[in-house]
Each structure stands twice: as C-alpha cells, then as structure tokens.
Amino acid sequence: MVESRISRPWSHSDHTTGWAVFGILYLVYWITTSLTFISTDELFLFDTTESFARRGSVMRNMTADLDWPGHTYVEPVQPLLSIPLVLLADRISEIGVAHSVMLLNMGVTAATGTLLFLYVRWLGYRRNIAIVTALLFGLTTIAWPYSKNYFRESIAGFTLLLAAYGLLRWRHALQSSDSWPHHWMILAIASGVLSIMAKESGAVGLPMLILIPLIGKSYLPKSMFLSWQLALIVSILLAMAFAGLYVYTELLGAGTFRFEPFQRLSGAFNNINSAGAGISGFLFSPGKGFFWHSPVLILALFSPFLARNGHRLDVIWPLFMFVAFVLVYALVRGDIWFGGTNWGPRYLVPVTPFLMLAVVPTLENCMSALRSNRLWYTLGLLSLVGFLVQVGAVWVNPLDYYAVLDDTGIPGAAWTVALWSVLFSPIVGHWRMMIEGTVPDFAWVQHSLEGPDWMLVTLLVMSLVSFVWLLYKVASLEVSRLLSACLSSLILFTVLTLTFIGLRRVYFDYRYQGNNSALHAMREALENTTLPDPVIFLNNRTYFDHMLNFYKGDSVWYTLELNPNELIEKDTELPDASTNPVDLLHRNAWSPVDYFGRQHQTMILVMETGSYHKNVVRTMEWWMNSEFHAIQNRDYSDDVRTISFSSAASPARDIVPEFRNMALRGEIIIQAGSSLVQIAWKYSNMNEFNNALIK
User: Fold this and answer.
1) What is the DSSP string of 427-463?
2) Alpha carbon of 37 to those of 33, 103, 609: distances in Å?
3) CA 264, CA 268: separation in Å to the nearest integer?
4) What's the predicted TM-score (pTM) here?
5) Fewer CB within a 10 Å sphere, N or C end of the chain?
C-alpha cells in the first residue's frame, strides 16, 4: 500500500511554529508548576540524580529513612538528563536544586507537544491541524499534570515518540531516494534504547513502532548496500546499548531487577487472575481511568473509520500500542495497577501522545470545509471537559486531596472508593476543593508567606500572550530563513530568561523552609566545613526538605529514621542512664550511622532540638557520644544545631550516671574524647549546677 500523498515540504514557518508551540506549552507549565515532590518515587530519582551529578555514583543516600541506603534501582536516563540542572543550581546562587530539577518534565512535555506537531506535519496534514494536535495534547490530556512531577513517564513517552518520528522520517527519506537515509534510523534506534533506559515500559511500545516503516512496501530499502548499512548500524547501536547497561549495572552497581524480563514475566503470570481489575480500571475507573482523565482521546477509537486509506495504518498502530500498555501493566502490576500516589493512570502517560496521533483524522474532518457539525461539537465538548479536568489536576496538590480522603474515615479510601466512586474520584474532589477556595498549588502563589509573586506571573502571562499572537501570525504565513531564525532565537531567549528569573524569584520557598535564616546559616557552614571527609546525618526528616533544595555541597548526607519517644511529656520519667542507647533507637536510624559513618573521618549530626531542650531524649546524640569522639558542637538557633564526631577514636564510655541523666534532661552537654570528658552547662554559677546535680 502506498500513501495517497506525500508530506508537504518543510518550511521555515513550520520551524518557527514548532518553537512557538514549545514556548506556549512551557510557559503554561511554568505558571501552573508547583516545584515540589509528591511521591517517594520522585525522591529516589532525585537522590540518584544528585549522586550522579556530584559524585559520579549510583549510591542513594539522602532518602535513607524511606529505604535502606544502597545502589539505585531506577533507570539511568532521567537522572543523567537532570545532571545539568543540578550543576546549574550548584553554580548559580539563589537557585534551588530541587526547584531546578523539577523543570525537567516541563521542558520534556513541551518538547513532546512540539514533536507531535512535527510528526503530524510529516504525515502530510495541514499546519493548523498539527498545531491543534499539539495544543490539545499539551492542555487537555494527562500530560499537563505530569509536567509538574518528577516521574519517568514523561521522558519515556518523549523518547518513544522520538523513535517513532525517526522511523517516519526514515520512511520518507527512502521514498525520496535520500543519498544516505539512515541517519533517521540512527535517531530511531538511539531513541528507542533511551526509552527503555528511561523506563522499562519502553520495551512494550517499541515492537509497535516496527509497523511504521512497513506502511507502504515501496519504502523499504531496495539496494543490498543500503540493507547492509542498516544491519551494521543496528548492530553497533545495540552493542553500545548493552555496553551502557553493563557499565550501569555491573561496574557502577545499580540494581538490575528492572532489566530482568524473566522475573517480570513470572510476576505477570502470577497476576493473571487479578489482571481483569487492572484492565477494567484503566478503561473505566472514575478515579484512574484513562479516558476520564483525557476525554479528547476517546476520539482515537473512531479515527480509523474517518481516516483516508493512505493514513489508516498510521492511526491503527497507536491503538495497538495503547492495548499493549493496558494489558502489560494490568498483568505486571496486579493489584496496584493504578500506580500508587499519583494523578490518574500514571503508567499510561507514555502512550498519551500516540493516542493523540490517532485523533488527527478526526481533527482533519472537523476542520475541513465539509465538516460535520455534530463531530465538531463533540470535539469541542471533549476538549473543554479535558481542559477543565487538567485545571483541577494542576490546581490542587494530590496529597491535599489524599488528606481529605483520609479524613472520611473510610479505610484506604484513596485505593478503594476513590478508584470506583464518581463522588470520591479525584477529578470531582479536586474541583470541589477549588470551589471551596483552595489556594492554587502553583510555585508563584505558594512560595512565600507574604503572598503570590505577581511580578513573576505577570511576566509569564505577558510572554505567553505574545507567543500565542506570534503563533497565530506565523501559522498562516511563510517567513524567510532569517526571520525564522530570529523569531526562534527570541522564543528560546525568552524561555531561558523567564526560567532564570522564575527560579530566582521563588528561591526562598517556605515549603522548603527557605525562610529559616538559621537553617541557611547551618547549611552554609556544612558546605564550607573544614572538617576532613565529612558525612552528614539528619536526625530525622525535620530539615530534609531544606537540605533537598538548598544544600549544594559535595558531602554525602543521609536522613535517619525518626526515633520513637524522642519527645516525652512533662515530668515523664527519663530512661535509666545505664540503658543501652541502641535499645531506644530505630534500627534504620543507628545502622546507617554505624555502617556508613565509619567509612568517613568525620560525622556531622544535624539536630532539630537545641542543646538544652527539656523533655527531649536525644537518643541518636546519646548513642553517638557513646560510640564516637565528639569534637564540635555548634548552635544556630534554639532548634538548629550540629554536633560533629570523629570516627578516628572511641571515647571513654563510663560517664558518671548522674551526668548522663542531666544530659538526657537537657541540662548539660557532654562531649567525650578518648581520655577527656568535657561538660558544658547552662547555669550561671556552680550553686545552680550543684542543685541540679542533687535533684
């Protein structure tokens, strides 16, 4: 079968239009982004990114309280692509590290919209149809909410679509007898490998892409020379992919279970009986159903009947990919097919741009001179509903609605009634919270206790309006190469400038405790410490968020598990001074210190309680004083303090019990060395000290 027509020649107006589409989507995402994490999966990814960027390691460290510290088990592409964002924040003052990294999926999702525009144009559709396709994808589907998060699905979808685009361009290059068409095949294979390395689900979608070059038998290579070239290219790229996987898993030591297909197949076989719930959930669940969250994509199911013969196969194979994703995830994930803490069907985000491709014939019919009014109204209604669904999704933080569900008293409401009840569906719940006056979960609104940053949003909105006007003008005109280059450069410059301004404006984000001057002083001291080979331990998660966004040092830092009963009621009897401190510690609190701390010369413990806080049992500090040599104690405020220990020598452990009791009560500080015990107290004279000792 041969296509009915060839794609229209690429023009400079198309180039400018693609940049305008990117700019519009990116600025919309900037206006609605939160720049905060909602899931432990995001934190593990960020942890891996930070280790990659600063130490060239795959060791997860800062999220130790969530999981035992160890080598990462996430795919490498997203952390690798995020390295420039970490380095940017590290080298520029007043740009937060977490803030910077959260920009990644904004850019990736906007780029996916641009790539959709390019793909539709090379299929031979008019420019206005390609524009509408890209904007509907970016503003009426689940892609928009996921631009706010740090999940892998957005990059997985982009790389998979880029592989499809490479195959499409290869198909056209063969048709036009390009002298060397295989550079597009190189792009396709490299993107396919990146897709798998971004998220293992790429392996589900790649087989469907094989259909792209097979559409039209005349597009296959006709020369033996070209065929041998292609075979050599494929072999080299696959060898490079396996070499990269070997380096990542064997040399660097990353976890391998995501790249063990037989283990996955075994798990899928065990979930056969529960797969029905996942399939029906992906299709029909009000809380996690795909078409509930992206209504316009329902039209993809009807497009094969509306497409012309030359485009029908280009519409059908994306539907095959959608079916494959639904079946595989229903089997592999079993009872947790919905993906845990997230918005909607997270696992189906990578297939969203492909379903949008399948909608294109419907768009063409709607935008033709002989359009059906009924079809036009259907498209308009589904697009409007989809836009409103996404507005609710980006307006309310999903964790806030989870808290509302918890308050209902229904056991596991987020994973029960919220899945199958329309009344408790997050789509309805988010809009209910909006109507009740919930403050938007936007960085420019939430970053400051003093109120929204109207200057930043004004700049963003003005630039957005300018990009929309430019898109309107360029879409119907042909521009010269020089003008196209100037306009594209202007768009890129504006995007980069506003990004820089935005990051600087929201830097002191109170959600990351950026308004705490004592924490900033503590953090700067940690970054500039002269102590040899330090490792930092946070006593618990109290200051975790601050370190996540603001710490820019090279030292490894861990967050320890919260120890029970550190804060006790007034007049409550303290533990006996002879008690082994380990007995009062959570295992995941002391064991990382014991294991990783001894690998460094110096350990710095960050405490959220001051030196003399009453009714506090500082069990970690107590234990470390028993095991290591305390060398420094620095107070930054009543509740920001660091204690430094040397692992070079052990202190004398036979501290006078009365002194240990006073230390537990917050009346003295004990720093023990190998042959010296130093005691500091808050009392103004010896009489007060003696009275406390007698008591």
Assistant:
1) HHHHHHHHHTTPPP--HHHHS-TT---HHHHHHHHHH
2) 11, 12, 26
3) 6
4) 0.89
5) C
Residue 571: what residue type? D
Say whether pLDDT at 7 is over 50: no
**CB-neighbour burial class of residue 347 (10 A; exposed 0-12, middle 13-18, buried 19+):** buried
- 275: tokens are 């797969």
Taking the C-alpha atoms of 87, 93, 98 and 99 in order, what is their torsion angle to the nearest 10 degrees? -110
Query: For the chain, how many residues are written?
Result: 695
User: What span, in angstroms and rounded, lies between the C-alpha atoms of 344 and 286?
Assistant: 9
Q: How would DSSP label each residue in 203-258?
A: HHHHHHHTHHHHSSGGGS--SHHHHHHHHHHHHHHHHHHHHHHHIIIIIS----GG
- Sorting pLDDT into bands at 50, 70 and 90, what band is 680? low
The two beta strands, 629-637 and 640-646, are antiparallel
Name the phi and psi angles at 682, rounded to 5: -90, 0
Task: Report the pLDDT value the prediction gives residue 647, as an integer from 0 to 100.
Answer: 81
Residues 348, 433: Cα–Cα separation, whole Å: 26
* Tokens at 220, concatenated: 């296959």
**DSSP assignment letter at 251:** I
Contact 302, 361 (CB under 8 A): no
For residue 502, is pLDDT > 70?
A: yes
- Count of CB atoms situated within 10 Å of the CB of 361: 25
Place of tokens 């990051």: 503
pLDDT, tens digit, for every residue of 261-298? 777 777 777 778 878 888 999 999 999 999 999 999 99
Q: Provide the strand spans (E) within 569-676.
A: 602-607, 629-637, 640-646, 668-672
Nearest partner of 440 among 151, 97, 43, 148, judged by Cα: 148
- Under DSSP, is residue 20 helix (H, G, I), strand (E, B) or coil? helix
Cβ(120)–Cβ(133) under 8 Å?
A: yes
One-letter amino acid at 675 equals S
Q: Compute the distance between CA of residue 577 and CA of residue 477 in angstroms, rounded to an integer.
A: 83
Q: Which of 382, 323, 385, 379 is nearest to 351 (CA)?
A: 323
Which regions of 252-340 does DSSP assign to beta strands (E)? Answer: none
Rounded to the nearest angstrom, the gap between the alpha carbon of residue 328 and the centroid of all alpha carbons in its chain is 23
pLDDT at residue 1 in the model: 32
Distances (CA, A) of 200 to 44, 152, 525: 16, 10, 41
Beta bridge partners of residue 678, listed in sequence order: 671
Domain ranges of the chain: 12-396+438-456, 517-694
Q: What is the pLDDT, as a whole number, of residue 2?
A: 35
Calpha distance 320→292 (Å, rounded): 20
Whether 395 and 441 have beta carbons less than 8 Å apart is answered as yes
Per-residue b/e over 7-39, b at no fewer than 16 CB within 10 Å? beeeebbbbbbbbbbbbbbbbbbbbbbbbbbbb
- Considering only CA atoms, which of 401, 360, 348, 6 is closest in space to residue 201? 348
d(CA 52, CA 61): 12
Report the alpha-carbon distance of residue 599 to residue 592 in Å, rounded: 11
| Count of Cβ atoms closer than 10 Å to residue 222 Cβ | 10
Instruction: Out of 14-18, 245-249, 427-431, 646-650, pick the least confident.
Output: 646-650
Residue type, 473: K
Which range has the top average pLDDT, 260-264, 585-589, 642-646?
A: 642-646
674: left (phi over 0), alpha (psi -120 to 50) or beta: alpha
Backbone angles phi, psi at 401, to 5 degrees: -75, -30
Q: How confident is the model over 298-318, as pLDDT tens digits?
A: 999 988 888 777 778 888 899
- Is the pLDDT at 571 greater than 80, yes or no? no
